[in-house]
């Protein structure tokens, strides 16, 4: 950055800190003079002091930088000094401006994508399949925008591109309240959203934003078409912007701000940047307006007002974006409800599940001393555990610290020295801890996602078994089967039962509010009422007066009869419960599972028949890159047991690999053999992938981490190289070829995300997925060698 840019930057920061300090100081003066009772007075005072301190530091910096200007006043030379401040304006005309625009475009598109994905996940109850479909739709529409831009005949001015970037940066600010308002108008509360209705709504909402972001890329390419290899500069700089946007949104914005505040701050940063680039007063007005809006969100609790439209007939007590998702606390008629990503976790005054989870397990053993509780502590299970005076310690492991912090305001963790709260991933904790346990209570939701399923696999249960004392007992819970079990529920229940049996000799099913699966090497007794009479704990529900031992045994036998002929086992490599959850969701709309297979295969194969050789190669590269990201994240969970802390790093490395690949292709004279070689390397990569995962000789070590990071970069470098190579080799003009290849890349990535996540990985596992991906790339090489000609994009 030039010296002039630094000066302008610090001048703007000085102005902002001065204005905020002055405005808040004025509010404090009004409050003191008129003795007004403001609940936010402490917040105003805190920000007043903080911004005042910031202004002082920046003022010192400002003074030292412009020392000659101020001393010249004493020498009566102010007129000669003043022009030097603006003497470098010419730096902001020409090429650097285009570079900044490209970076801003990539940065904003990634930030908006991450933030909107989080918001849609919350609004539609965090269904993982819907989230995958949303990401696929985003890339499809983005690709459509790129393709549309490639068909334009005009060369757009920078002012036109700037206006488009401003528009797509502001549109999400309108989309967020619309999502929350119309969710319960179009889909009444309590009604399951039909997949086609969801897809249609998401397409309508995302269409203007995604098309504009894709259109921007194509217009930027057209804008620099006279520059040699200008499209490579656009591709590389946009990837760098996306890299920065992914890291900042994941590690900064979502940890400190709400979705609305994050979008406002991003738009504000854009307006300030455009002012530096163009020196137009309109950007000062835009920055001021956005800053006032951002400031108002703190004082008027805008986020709670927006969320109140989503949680109808409930009072929003608190809502916060956390590293692991949105947590919202509502209140109605004295009952507090905790939601994570729109899904109800638990409510106060509902002790049945807490009692069942704890007492169904504890009553099985006489005087257990060490208890492991995975999640559920805030919902009341800790209170149930400390009813037993002989317990020596309770290790309560919770992944999301904010959930406990918010929960303690309404359900304080009991002040008992036996309780130890641990914020960590349970797989990581068990690998690093030396604790052993008599009872392990796994109070997690159903294994409907890849993340949660890790705690329900054969490998995890093997780790847990090593931490159990002789005669130790483990309890899981699945959604209640009731009086009828669907095919997907039968398969999921069989997976739970058979997987526990791989590590424990005895497994017992006790139906209740949930179906509880107890596992141990010692005896298990389904007569809960009888066990209670031997140790009559003061319970509201789990006692001999309420529990029907005969009914429990009868319902348990029914479940056993349904699952007895199914030999399925849940493993890290093959997360079948996720697939059965997809079938369960679709079956509620009379959606035949055969249609799912056919639709996904058509989605995967049809584009190949419509594309020419080079375009289909880029399409398969995008497909392979998206698949590699999913497989690597999943494999990282297998080896390390946690992945949240490295998601931002994975995004950054992948985008960085795209830049490296494009630069590599720029530096060599591209021939068709280079393109085929890159395709071949992609095949080799996926053939080696399972070997490195299954026969990892170094375990969860730093060397293994380094290996993972290298494996992230390799496919992205290949993709960047193939994109540039295909564009250079294309017989069409660069203005058409570069956007067309980029659209094919996005289409492949969209298909890869949907097909791999929803079908291939859950059913075929990592090894089968790698073979499918390698085979698809082999098919692409074969089509190229045969001279197959499809329909040109």
Describe the 3D structure:
With 793 residues, the protein is an alpha/beta fold. The chain has five domains: 3-90; 97-310; 311-344, no CATH class; 350-571, 3-Layer(aba) Sandwich (Rossmann fold), CATH 3.40.50; 592-793, Growth Hormone, Chain: A. It is 65% helix and 9% strand.
Quick structural overview:
The protein is an alpha/beta fold and 793 residues long. The protein is built from 28 helices and eleven strands. The protein folds into five domains: 3-90; 97-310; 311-344, no CATH class; 350-571, Rossmann fold, CATH 3.40.50; 592-793, Growth Hormone, Chain: A (Up-down Bundle).
CATH topology of the largest domain: Rossmann fold
Largest sheet: 7 strands, mixed
Helix amount: 55-70%
Chain-averaged pLDDT: 82
CATH superfamily membership of the largest domain: Vaccinia Virus protein VP39
What layout of secondary structure does this protein have?
Elements: H1 3-34, H2 41-65, H3 67-74, H4 78-81, H5 95-123, H6 128-150, H7 158-186, H8 195-223, H9 230-256, H10 259-278, H11 281-299, H12 302-308, E1 315-322, E2 325-332, E3 335-340, E4 343-347, H13 352-362, E5 370-374, H14 377-385, E6 393-398, H15 401-407, E7 419-423, H16 426-432, E8 437-442, H17 450-453, H18 458-466, E9 468-479, H19 487-501, E10 506-511, E11 514-520, H20 528-534, H21 549-563, H22 576-587, H23 593-610, H24 613-640, H25 647-667, H26 672-694, H27 702-729, H28 734-785
Parallel strand pairs: 5-6, 5-8, 6-7, 8-9
Antiparallel strand pairs: 1-2, 2-3, 3-4, 9-11, 10-11
């Amino acid at each position: 950055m030039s010296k002039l840019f630094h000066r302008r930057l610090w001048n703007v920061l000085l102005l902002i800190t001065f204005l905020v300090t002055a405005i808040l100081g004025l509010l404090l003066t009004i409050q003191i003079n008129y003795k007004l009772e403001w609940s936010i007075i402490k917040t105003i005072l805190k920000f007043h002091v903080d911004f005042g301190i910031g202004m002082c530091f920046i003022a010192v910096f400002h003074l030292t930088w412009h020392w000659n200007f101020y001393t010249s006043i004493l020498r009566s030379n102010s007129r000669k000094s003043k022009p030097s401040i603006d003497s470098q304006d010419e730096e902001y005309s020409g090429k650097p401006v285009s570079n900044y625009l490209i970076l801003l475009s990539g940065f904003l598109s990634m930030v908006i994508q991450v933030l909107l994905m989080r918001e849609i996940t919350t609004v539609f109850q965090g269904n993982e399949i819907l989230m995958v479909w949303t990401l696929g739709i985003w890339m499809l529409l983005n690709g459509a925008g790129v393709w549309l831009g490639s068909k334009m005949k005009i060369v757009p001015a920078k002012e036109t591109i700037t206006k488009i970037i401003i528009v797509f940066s502001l549109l999400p600010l309108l989309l967020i309240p619309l999502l929350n308002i119309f969710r319960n108008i179009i889909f009444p509360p309590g009604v399951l959203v039909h997949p086609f209705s969801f897809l249609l709504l998401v397409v309508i909402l995302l269409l203007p934003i995604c098309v504009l972001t894709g259109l921007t890329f194509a217009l930027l390419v057209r804008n620099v078409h006279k520059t040699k290899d200008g499209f490579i500069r656009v591709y590389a700089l946009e990837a760098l912007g996306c890299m920065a946007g992914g890291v900042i949104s994941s590690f900064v914005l979502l940890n400190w701000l709400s979705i609305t505040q994050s979008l406002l701050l991003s738009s504000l940063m854009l307006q300030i940047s455009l002012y530096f680039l163009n020196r137009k007063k309109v950007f000062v007005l835009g920055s001021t307006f956005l800053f006032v809006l951002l400031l108002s969100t703190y004082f008027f609790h805008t986020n709670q007002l927006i969320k109140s439209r989503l949680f109808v007939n409930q009072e929003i007590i608190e809502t916060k974006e956390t590293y692991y998702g949105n947590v919202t606390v509502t209140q109605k008629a004295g009952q507090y409800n905790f939601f994570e990503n729109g899904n109800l976790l638990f409510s106060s005054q509902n002790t049945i599940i807490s009692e069942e989870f704890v007492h169904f397990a504890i009553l099985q053993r006489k005087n257990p001393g060490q208890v492991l509780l995975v999640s559920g502590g805030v919902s009341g299970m800790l209170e149930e555990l400390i009813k037993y005076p002989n317990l020596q310690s309770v290790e309560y492991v919770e992944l999301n610290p904010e959930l406990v912090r918010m929960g303690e305001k309404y359900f304080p963790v009991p002040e008992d020295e036996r309780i130890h709260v641990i914020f960590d991933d349970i797989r990581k904790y068990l690998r690093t801890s030396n604790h052993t346990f008599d009872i392990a209570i796994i109070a997690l939701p159903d294994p409907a996602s890849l993340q949660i399923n890790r705690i329900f696999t054969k490998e995890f249960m093997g780790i847990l078994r090593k931490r159990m004392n002789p005669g130790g007992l483990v309890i899981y819970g699945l959604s209640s089967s009731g009086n009828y079990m669907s095919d997907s529920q039968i398969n999921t229940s069989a997976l739970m039962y058979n997987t526990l049996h791989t590590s424990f000799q005895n497994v017992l099913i006790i139906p209740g509010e949930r179906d509880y699966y107890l596992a141990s090497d010692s005896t298990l007794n389904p007569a809960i009422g009888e066990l209670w009479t031997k140790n009559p704990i003061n319970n509201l529900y789990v006692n001999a007066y309420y529990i029907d031992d005969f009914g429990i045994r009868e319902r348990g036998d029914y479940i056993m009869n349904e699952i007895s002929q199914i030999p399925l086992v849940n493993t890290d490599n093959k997360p079948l419960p996720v697939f059965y959850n997809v079938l369960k969701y679709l079956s509620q709309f009379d959606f035949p599972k055969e249609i799912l297979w056919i639709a996904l295969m058509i989605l995967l194969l049809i584009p190949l028949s419509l594309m020419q050789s080079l375009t289909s190669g880029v399409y398969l590269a995008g497909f392979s890159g998206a698949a590699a990201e999913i497989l690597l994240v999943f494999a990282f969970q297998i080896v390390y047991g946690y992945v949240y802390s490295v998601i931002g790093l994975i995004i950054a490395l992948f985008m960085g690999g795209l830049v490296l690949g494009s630069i590599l292709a720029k530096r060599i004279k591209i021939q068709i053999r280079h393109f085929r070689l890159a395709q071949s390397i992609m095949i080799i990569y996926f053939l080696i992938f399972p070997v490195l995962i299954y026969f990892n000789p170094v375990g969860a070590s730093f060397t293994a981490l380094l290996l993972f990071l290298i494996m992230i970069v390799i496919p992205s470098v290949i993709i960047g190289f193939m994109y540039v190579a295909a564009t250079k080799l294309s017989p069409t003009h660069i203005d058409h070829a570069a956007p067309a290849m980029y659209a094919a890349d996005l289409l492949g990535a969209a298909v890869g995300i949907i097909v791999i996540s929803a079908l291939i990985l859950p059913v075929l596992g990592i090894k089968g997925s790698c073979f499918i991906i390698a085979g698809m790339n082999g098919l692409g090489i074969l089509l190229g060698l045969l001279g197959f000609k499809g329909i040109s994009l």
